[in-house]
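**Paired protein data**
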Amino acid sequence: MAELLFKYEFVGFAASILSSISMLPQVWSVAQTGEVDNISMAWIFLTILASCLWFFFGLANNIRPTIISSAVILLSGLILFHLKYKNQKEKPNENFLIRTKNKFTPLYLTAI
């Protein structure tokens, strides 16, 4: 029985490593280029939320592969959130701009 559990834990660690590695190319690309236009803030938020929940689930049930992978994915998500926020502040987001008299006006100014 112990040998079977060890095999399943090995599979869990393999899945954990692959899941964690899957986020790294995106983080690397954004860190190198600063291009964040094609990354959804909703996706980043949901990734952070899901990895937090998985992290606490892993802690509560003492599942090491889940704890490790969710911690790495959480860290990657937080880095992406920081890079997205930092790079979006430098240029206006056109989703929040509306066209008025042949120029763009921030949406929050149109209510005034």
Remarks:
- The helical segments are 2-33, 41-61, 64-90.
- The longest strand covers residues 97-100.
- The two ends are 69 Å apart (CA to CA).
